[in-house]
Amino acid sequence: MTSTARPADGLRADDAPAPAPTSAGMKKVGGVAGWIDDRTGAAKGVGYLMKKVFPDHWSFMLGEIAMYSMIVCLLTGVFLTFWFDPSMVHTTYEGSYVPMQGVEMSRAYASTLNISFDVKGGLLIRQIHHWSALLFIVALSVHMLRVFFTGAFRKPREINWVIGCVLSLLALVEGFAGYSLPDDLLSGTGLRAAQGFMVAAPVIGSYLSYALFGGTFPGLDIIPRLYSIHILLLPALLIGLFTVHIVLVALQKHTQYPGPGKTNDNVVGFPVMPVYAAKAGGFFFIVFGGIALISSLIQINAVWVHGPYVPNATTAGAQPDWYMGFPDGALRLLPGFLEFETFGFTWAFPVIIGALLVIPAFYGGMIAYPFIEAWVTGDKREHHLLDRPRNAPTRTGLGMAALTLYGVLMFAASNDIMAIKFGMSINDITWTLRVLTFLGPVIAFWATRRLCLSLQRHEKDLVLHGRETGRIERSADGEFHEVHEPLDPYTRWTLVQHEGTPPLELEPAVDENGVENKKGARKNKLRAKLHDFYFGGAVEPATPAELEGAHHEHGHEQIEASEDDRVSAH
């Protein structure tokens, strides 16, 4: 069969096809983008961000949940500002909620009832706002736990860790200011407790309370001032810090979990456009839909049940939100004899320690930890591969000890409720929690560290000897042994990629003039003790020589077993 094509057509066989003409719509978009770039020079930065590669792992979504819930909280907050009246001026309620009709209350509380019962969709938006605020704090807290236990706070991310700690602290203050605004009996009780904490501060306490409340409690200024802080100051700080956090994440290489092909010099994942952006956009609507579903089905902060705040009344069983429970629990556990008088002055140390020092102590320890660990270990290198928590047993144990202490203090904030519901003595509960305050973190640290070391030993044995198959074979001399199956290279690499105990580098014992460095000697002694504490009992990863020896040993056993099988067969 003869081809009808012209011979000259073969000369253009390898030519690239002509590109499709650009549509009129895309030309307009390109024109707008070019106009913006000519005036801002943003194309280079946007192009860099669009090509940025992010690893794909479910735990990285925790930070996204925090960001998305904050966005939902901000949007619903804007809606609520249209109808909320942040005034403590008294009025008579005449809305549609019959049990409160004719009751004297503040305009703040009346407007909250109006949003809940008279504004279309108002109650749903209020509940979305409250649930998204709680989810924001939960997601932020769990995200920080992931960062801590995987070592993502190490160089060069110490600044981002500090920013995360400040964000968490601001979120607590923002949440407290938010649920204090309705001026119902429950939130008013919380404000009364906060004012009591302020006046317990030595010297400045009464001045601080007078300045914030605009006079004696409750005054007329606290709700308007909290409103300004809640909708202006704290959101601006949160958005600013979140922006800095995201910019730092984009400028630095994103951390990733260890795996084949993943090193400190690369990032394995998907670029922002189009993959990551599409996934992030879809995930935002999933988070928003989940919040809306919870808000539609589960009631929260039913302020109409509590009634308006009256200074001479309180609610039975009043409890702070979970994230503010640990200072209240510390206050309840501290013994009363710590309060005493000297020279006519009352020193309320239970309040000073429990309510004023616990929060700064918690967050101060969190902020300082990356720098303390770097000093103890002497590790000043950049880290982009995450640790498996079991491979950092001391850090993991310290984290669990802190969580245990937090949990004990949080449960202590409900000691009265537990006593009522379980029919137990509140004194027995209080003393049990006091003991657990000191004993619980120690037990948690010891148990967690031992568990991590046991997992390390198991994995090293798994690498060297392989996986148990359950098959029993007999050797030539009549001994029975179980056949082990070697791990595949990808699984084995994950189990051996972590580093062993680093050597301790100490300062010289003498200075450049040959004079004994006494200060340096004391510092060296302290570092040596902390280094032994941090790395004591560490299980070193399997070395290539150990792997080669183990493979040779098991290969010899398998040869002997196969020869024995052949003899038995004959």
Automatic annotation (TrEMBL):
Protein name, UniProt field: Cytochrome bc1 complex cytochrome b subunit
Record-linked Pfam families: Cytochrom_B_N_2
UniProt entry tagged with the keyword DNA-binding: no
Biased composition (Basic and acidic residues): 548-570
SUPFAM superfamilies per record: a domain/subunit of cytochrome bc1 complex (Ubiquinol-cytochrome c reductase), Transmembrane di-heme cytochromes
Record's signal peptide: none
Top EC group: translocase
Annotated TM spans: 65-84, 133-153, 159-181, 193-213, 225-251, 283-304, 347-372, 392-411, 431-448
Cofactor(s) listed in the protein's UniProt record: heme
